[in-house]
Every structure is written in C-alpha cells, then in structure tokens.
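Researcher: Sequence recovery benchmark, item below. Answer with residues only.
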C-alpha cells in the first residue's frame, strides 16, 4: 500500500510525492522547499491537499497518495493511490481547455473555471492510477 511516510518528499527523478490516505488523524508539513518553491501538504483519510507558495495545487476527497507529481505549463502527470471514488481538483491556468487521461484513456476535454480549477473523479485502488492532463 503506497503512502508517503514523511507526507511529502522529492523523488530521485526530481518529482514530488505526497499524501497518506490511511492516516486516521489530520497531519501536515509546512515549508517544504523544492526547486525554489515552498510547499505545504495536509493529508489524512478524508482529504489530501497541496499548496505551492500559498497557492492551491491539488486536492482529493477522500485522501490519496500522489507519486511522481510533475507539472509544466502544458502537462501535469502523476500516479494516484487510494480507496474508491475520489474527486480530484487540480489548480491550472484559468479558463483553459485540457485533455484528461486516466490510465492512458482519455476521459474527455475539460475546461478550467475562472479560478483555474479542473475537477474530475477517478476510481482509486492500491494498484495505482496514472493521470495525465494535457493543455489543448
């Protein structure tokens, strides 16, 4: 069952991993430095949330574990672990269209709202779910 024991860490390839969907109590790490940015993660079984420089980046309800999180202006990729139907919210560019792929299958084009949030649901398990979000 993949979880990030330290709640957030930098992987050998430079990507971030964060979250622990099996925690029974709320836990957080603040002031985690990575590539000149400061991250904050809050996580437990009911929610996982990531902020970068005090701005929203990621949220899942219920909680999840995110492995290999990487985002560029045109592409966001990561692998998710958790339990059951999970709502994912990603902070991206506002009022922009993206194509979302779950396990290499397109679930369609989606447009962010005026605050730049993209919302979709996935069925999570301990085997992992790959997510790729590509700017159109």
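Model:
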């Amino acid at each position: 069952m993949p979880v990030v024991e330290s709640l957030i860490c930098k992987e050998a390839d430079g990507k971030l991993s964060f979250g622990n969907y099996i925690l029974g109590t709320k836990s957080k790490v603040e002031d985690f430095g990575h590539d000149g940015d400061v991250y904050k993660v809050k996580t437990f079984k009911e929610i996982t949330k990531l902020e970068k420089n005090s701005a929203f980046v990621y949220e899942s309800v219920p909680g999840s574990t995110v492995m290999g999180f990487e985002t560029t202006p045109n592409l966001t990729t990561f692998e998710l672990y958790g339990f059951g139907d999970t709502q994912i919210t990603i902070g991206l560019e506002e009022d922009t269209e993206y194509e979302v792929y779950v396990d290499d299958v397109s679930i369609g084009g989606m447009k962010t709202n005026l605050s730049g949030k993209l919302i979709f649901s996935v069925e999570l398990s301990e085997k992992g779910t790959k997510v790729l979000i590509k700017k159109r």
